[in-house]
Each structure stands twice: as C-alpha cells, then as structure tokens.
Amino acid sequence: MSQQIPGLPDMTYIDREKRTFLDQIYFWEITRGILITTKHFFRNMAKWLTFRKGGVVILYPEEMRPDYSQNNRGRHILVQRSDGSPRCVACKMCATNCPAECITIVAEESDDSNIQKRPKVFEIDVSRCIFCGFCVEACPVDAIRMAPTTEELAGYNRFRMIYDKKTLMTWKPTVNDDVVHGYNP
Amino acid sequence: MPEQTIPATYKIEEVKKRREILELPIAGPGDQPIKVNIGPSHPAMHGTIKMIAELVGESIVNIDVEPGFLHRGFEKMMEDHNYVTALPYTDRLNYVSAMINNFGYAETIEKLFGIEVTERCAWLRTLFAELSRVTDHYTCQAAICSEIGAMTPFLYLMQARDYIWEHLNWASGARQTYSYARIGGLARDIPDGWLGKLKEILDSNIPLLKDIHGLMDRNRIFLDRTQGVGEISKEDAINAGITGPFLRSTGIDYDVRKAMPYHKYAEVDWEVPVGKYGDNYDRWFVRMREIEESLKICYQCIERIPSGPLNVDAFQAHLPDKAEVYDNIEGLINHFKIIIDGPKPPKGSIYHCVEGSNGELGFFLVSDGSGHAYRLHVRAPSLMIMGQLDKIIIGHQLADIIPIFGTVNMVGGECDR
Amino acid sequence: MESTFFGINTVTFITNLVIAGGIFGFMFTMGAVMSWSERKQSAQLQDRIGANRAGIPLPGGKSLKVWGFINNIADAIKCLVKEDFKPRAYDLFMYNLAIFFAFIPAVISVAVIPFAGEVHLAELFQSWYLKWIPGLPEYFATNLPNYVFRVQVANLNVGLLFVFAVGSISVFGAILAGWSSNNKFSMMGALRACSQMISYEVAMGLALLGIIFIYQTVDVWSLVQGQRELAFGWLPKWGIVLQPFAFFLFIASAVAENKRMPFDLPEAESEIISGYYTEYSAFKMLMFMFAEFIEICFVAIMITTLFFGGYSVPYLMADGFHWPWGAFTAVSHGNVVLLELGSFLTKVFFFCFLLQQARWSLPRFRYDQLMRLGWKYLLPLALLNLVVTVIIVALGGF
Questions:
Q1: Torsion of CA A66, A69, A73, A78, to 10 degrees
Q2: Residues in C 245-274 with any Cβ partner in B closer than 8 A
Q3: Does C281 have pLDDT greater than 90?
C-alpha cells in the first residue's frame, strides 16, 4: 500500500454487484454533482461582482498569460553584429540538422578575411518549420535564436511565408551582439 | 419482401451470448440490418478511425474497424533521417504523452551504445515520464466524459492539464512536441525554481481531481453507462497481446515498470492498480488510480532529484556543451561530426520497451553502423487493442461504441504511426 | 356606451392583445435568454469567460457588449443570412413542415398559465408607476370602475389537458424531421426522439394526477388559487409541500420530454452528430434550437405553477399581507400586481437556472436505460404516488 497524497484519497472501487441504495436512486448523487458545479459558478460570480476576472481564461492578444514560458520556441531571430551584418558564417549546420529541411542557405565570400563566409541567401520556410529548436542547438556561433512569442507568423499566402534574411533580422526585438555569450536556446 | 437470413459472417453465436447476458431480444432471420458508417471525421473518434457498423435497431450485429487513416510513414522516415533529426518524429507518435516516446527512443539507442545515464538524468526522466503519463490520462478521462455528455469534467481536466503543459514548456520549450531527450541525457537542464513551481501546480490539480470524483464516480447514470459494457476476459486480452491499463483492468497486474524496471521506478514507493471485470468502469478506475500513483511518484521525485552532471560523457553519442564548441577545436569538430553524420551506434539489433500510457511501447532497432537506422519498428500498444475491438463491441448498442472507444484511448499517432 | 371592434368590446380587445403580446413576447425573449445562458452560465461554471467579443459600437470608441448577449443576436442574424441548402430529402414538404410542429407547441402551451392574479384596471392606473399617463386613469375611473381581467391569455377550464394535448404534437416535429432527411443518423435520432417523448408523456401525466386529485381541478387558475390556501394556519399549500415525490417525477419527465440533458439522446452530439436536425441549416435549425430553449422556460413555468404556487406570494391576498400571527400590512393594488408578477418571474428564473445547471453536470443516458427508467421506474412510482395520495385524502388529510 503506497503512501497517500494529502488531500486526495485513493479512489474507491464500486463493484457492480455491490451498489448501495444511495447509488441506485439517481437523485442523491445528481444533487451532489449539481452542488459541485454550483460551487464553481458562485465562486466565479463572486469574482466578477467584485471587479476581478472569474475564470481562468486569458484574452489573447490583449493579455498574455502570466506563466507564459520564456523558453518557448517561437520565431527565429538572426543575431546581428554591432555593424548590422548577420553573425551567421554560412556553415550550414542548421540546415543539415533541421528535421524538416526548411532552411535554405547560399554562401558567399565575406569582405572581412577573419570571417570568411557570410550568407547571401538565408531563408526559412515557416510553413514547414516544426519549431524544434535544432537549428539553434546546431549553430556553432550563436547566430540564430528563437524568441518566445510567435506573433507575425501567420500568413495568407504560402509563398510569402518563406522568410528571407532581411525579415529574420529585423523582427522586433533585434539582437545585436559581438561577443558570443553562453548557449541561448 | 424476401426473407433475409443473417449471413454466417455475423458471428451469431457471440451475438447471442452477449445479448443473453444483456437480456435483450435476439436478432433473428427476417431482421434486416442497416449499415452505418461511423466515419473518419466524427466528433468521437479520437484522431481518425472508420467503423462500419451493421445495426438491427440500435444493436450492433457486426462491426468492421479500420484504423490507419493517420499513417504517415514514420518507420520509413527513420531510414532517411539520422538518429538526432529523427527525434521530433517520435514526439508525434503518442502526441499526448510525448516525453515517454522520446525517452523510449533515446534509451533504445543508448542500450545499443552501451551507455548508462547519470543519476540526475534518470531521476529527471522518471519525473518527466510520469508527468506525461498524467497528462495523457487527463486527456483520456476528459474525452470519455465529454463524449458521454458531461462537458464540465472535460473542461476541469483541461484546466489541470494546461498548467502542467505550460510548465513543461518552461523546461523544454514546447507544450506538446518536446523533443527533450538526447542520446545520453537530456537537451538541457531544468531551470531554477522549476521544481518548487511544479509542486504548486500539482497541489492545484488536486481540488479539480476531487471535483471529477464527485461528479462522475458514484453517479448512477455514469455507472450504468460504463459498468458491464465493453468487457474483455483475461485470456482474450493476453492472447491478443494487450498491455497497459486495458490489461490491468481485467485483473492481471503486468506493468513494464515493475516487471522490467528502468529509470528509477524500483526506488520510489508506488503500486500498480488493477480492476476486476475488464469493463469500461474498470478501465476508468485503473486510469484514475494511475493518475494518483503517478502524482505520488512525481512528489517523491521532486524531493529526491540529486544534483550532478546531466549528460553522460559520451562524445560519440551527443553534442558537446556549447562552452566546448565555442572555445576549443575538438569540441567544434565533435559538434560538426555528429551533426553531419549523426551518432553511430555499433552494428546490431535491439528491442527495448517502456511503459507508455496505453501499454508496452517498444522500439525495435536494427543498426548497420551508420548514422541512421536500417530499420526502426515501433510496437504500438493501441494497435493490439484495435484488433480486438470488434469482439468487444459486437452485441452492444450504438450508444455503447462511444464509451468503449473512449476508454480504449486510441491515439491516432501511435496506432497508425 | 360600449364601443365595439368587429363585435368585440374595444377595451377587452386591447387588453387581450397587450397580454397575449406580452406573454408570447416574454417566451420569445426567454428563448433568447436561455441560449445566452447556455453560453454564459456554462462558461461561469466551467471557469471560462464565454463569448464576449461581439458588440454594438457606440460613439466614443467603446462598444456595447451586454455581457455577451450581443453575440446571441449576432448568431441569430448569421443564421438568417446563411445559405439555406436544399438537401436531397425524401419529401421536401415534410422537411419544411417539421419545423412548425416543433416550434409552435412550445410557444402556445403557455397560453393557459396565469402570470399574475386578477387585475382591476381602474385601481391599477392609480398605482405609482402608471398614474402619470395622461388621460387614461381618469377614463378608467369614470367609465369602467369594475373592469377586471386575468393576466392569462386563454381562460380555459381544461387548462392542464390543453398543455398536454399541445405538448404531444411536438413529437411530430422530431419524427418528420428525422425521417424526411434521407440520412441514417437523422433517422436514428428521430426514432429515439419519438419513443422517448411518448414514454415520458405518459409518466408526466400520471405524476400530475396526484396534484389534480388534491386540488380537485384541471383549470390552471384554480390550481394556483388552491395553492394560496394555508394549511395549519401558516403553511401555504404549495404543490411541493403536498406532493414532494411527484415533484421529482415531474421534473425528470419534463426534462425528458424537452430532450435536454441528461435525456438528450435524440441529439447526442458525440454519437449521431446532431440527431434529427443534422440536415437542417440556417434558419430552420435555429427554429429547432429556439423551440428547445423556449421549452426549457416552459418546463420551469410548469414547475412553478404546479408545485410552487405560481404567481402567489405566501400570505399575500388581494388587499395586502395577512401574516399568520394576525398582523395585516396593506398593500396597494398596483404593488400587489407587481409583487405577484415579480415572484412568478423570480421562481421561473430560478428553475431555469437549475435546469441549466443540471444540463452541464450530468452525462447522458443510453437508449435502453432511458426506456427502462421511463416505463419501469417512473410509471409505477407515479401510480404508487397516486395510490398513496388517494388513501391520505380518503382518510381526511389535506
């Protein structure tokens, strides 16, 4: 017999051959059930009548839920260096690691010889992306991150949902960072 | 009107036996059945299942169950992706308890590698797996309630489930498709304060569970709908290969977590609930008790998680820490090799099973030494139940299909892969 | 000098028009209010908010939301302008006719229910809320000082039988709708509806035999008058006091007749989609649902009238409060009418609330369990109730 959780006793089994009289007349248990829902009803009404919000519903997008996770995998953000260029070196680790194969990268030579490559084309097909975060995990230079919210991701046109480099860099908030910090999923 | 005899395929003996038990008149020659299609898109078919039922009045004389509408080629995909990029696909097998699938998959590969995870990782995996099981049982019970008409318990359970999901979002990054397991450990460690908040959330679930007990448990309408309906005998269940709450409701206490213990199940104090007759009420009872037992395991895990390293030190299996990748060249090369080729377990084949929320979820892996699997087969627990569903339903009425199917908890992603 | 209007006394005509308009208007409004409470009350008890976005824009940037009621009006407008497709029905005439069979009985059954007591029109116009109308108080005081009418549309002395007769017509609505829809699921919904409604009509009628026996009348007005009397000098002889068992039987049968949860098998959404009105769309489906909501209100009105004294406030007679300890508080006629109407509405709203709470808390019956309940439990219990009532009355009680 394992230990009980305080406040939640183990459920008792009601054998179908041994139902009690109170189980057999419908009204007793029905009244108890109605009392439970009435308790919820009046608890919520009391909250509304004292100008608070009854109910646990969040009216999105005017409100955000207070326990909205900060680690949620939302839209992708390309990190910029302090001069505005993307930190990406077009190594294509993210494109290789992507399970949905939705990242397209075309590399070109960079002007700076310390940074040898930069992306000419960096596109993410958001209608194919599964928001798994593998690209963020794969990047060796912390060039792509995921913001927690997912606004501006819906679209009316399938082809307009392939977001190019410029869009990915200019979604608010932008991130400018020259130094690579810790891991930022 | 020509006399129509009921054809021999109608399993007439079983129908007679069932209807004698239920004290209903027997459909004889001259009764013309009508064929009704309870189609793939129906409010009560979780995921998609087609059933073609032949009815005489309201009683079912024959039923043909067709799963498979959600088949997406999971096992073929495994041959194409490497072991790391295949992980999000396992999330989408039993999508209501995705952590269990993730961990089962990761452990199969770890067994092939011969890797043993760290203590902290084992405790965390136990905790996450039990939280997933709790959310799966919440979903199943809520669906049963809403389909037999009581919408309010459905919403109370959804409220309880939602807090847990958002909390898992804080740890892993998603509410349902976590992709949290990695070979050799987990994707990242839990944030500070996560365990304390989890305790609050589990405490807040308890009043909602008590409300559900008060609304449903002794309500005679509910008892009449579920007791005596959808019975399966012990022998039939074992012969069909059914495991999980379905089997335990018939009275046999086989649970993979007790029979072949993995993670830390042997070290926490919990028990396996069993039913008595194998009918709908017993499956409801077993799942409710399993929620309570899983909550007990969660409370004990919260107390007992040790500190220590999270991922085991196996460079060929998982990505190195980001500090290594940014700083030294071996880390960078390791990172690149694993991403481009994938982790390469040794050649061989292995079968490993975990206790999913519907039964024994098994992964059979054949590896040829390269970065992706040669063959990965998933033993889906709910598929075995689908095979027996027609024997269970025949003889009952049309209105009984709904609670029976609800308590089966067929999750389309797992049954059809 | 009496003016006539097609042979009917003008004043009578106008008062009857006002009363009929008021009562039927009240029923239609209650149908809308019930569908609003289906959303909002259910939201309250499920910890949600319910629909609250639709609003009428007001000048100044705000919008009038009325706690979600505008959503219901928006739904009605949507149903009016939606595409009304023509299914390949077996019989289009029956398909269209079924709506009327479902809708009309629910509304006209309320014609025999009194909403308030007798109204003396001349005194009514002296009350504080009507005496500011120019001209009418003087007209009635001089010309028709003794004019009396009842707040009841039809003054039938077979009131209760009329209710049952009209109520049994609504079975046709369900059957015709399901049969003419050319859809197996609709057919099954129609079969379930038909057998359910017929069984529970029997149980409902028999449960009320005790009431009829005690108050010695079928006329609804006299039933309410009978409930105003006091037993032992202080307890009003309400139906719930004299026949508590029949109250439970009646409430179960009436909810089953209305096809609401827990008896809403004919339209069980998770099994047969929408049952007998699957193939209806737009305004026709709205009429079916509207009829169902109006019937909830009607069931509440029946419970109030038969078991809780109708419009009567305990101890309130036509001239004031006659308290049981001998005191007397005078109340003016206008206030008496207002109190009676108010008490009727309060009781009706309370029972509507209770029926809606029961709707959301309970699972639904299976078909054979429903039949078993109706024929094997409710019917014998109603007869037993009648036998016990007869014995007690014969022994001199009540």
A1: 70
A2: 261-262, 264-265, 268-273
A3: no
Distance CA C64, CA B56 (A): 54
Domains of chain B: 74-415 (1.10.645.10)
Chains in touch with C (3+ beta-carbon pairs under 8 Å) read A, B
**H helix or E strand, kind and range, residue C96:** helix C92-108
Looking up tokens 């909501």 gives C293
- Number of B to C CB contacts under 8 A, please give it: 79
In angstroms, how far is the first alpha carbon of chain A from the final one?
43
Chains that touch A (3 or more CB pairs under 8 A): B, C
**CA separation for the pair B201, A166 (Å, rounded):** 41
Q: Is C43 within 8 Å of chain A by CB?
A: yes
**H-helix segments, B38-148:** 74-78, 87-91, 98-113, 119-147
- CA distances A74 to A105, B18, B391, Å, are 21, 54, 46
Report the C-alpha gap between B412 and B176 in whole angstroms. 15
Contact A120, A110 (CB under 8 A): no
Over residues B174-205, the pLDDT tens digits come to: 888 898 998 888 888 888 889 999 999 999 99
d(CA B411, CA B97): 10
Give per-residue pLDDT as tens, C349-358: 999 999 999 8
Q: How large is the greatest C-alpha to C-alpha distance in chain B, in angstroms?
A: 88
Q: Does A49 touch chain C (CB under 8 A)?
A: no
The distance of Cα B29 from the centroid of its chain, to the nearest Å, equals 42
Closest CA to C109 of C176, C165, C149, C28: C165
pTM, entire model: 0.89
Any idea which residue has 């079968």 for tokens? Answer: B351
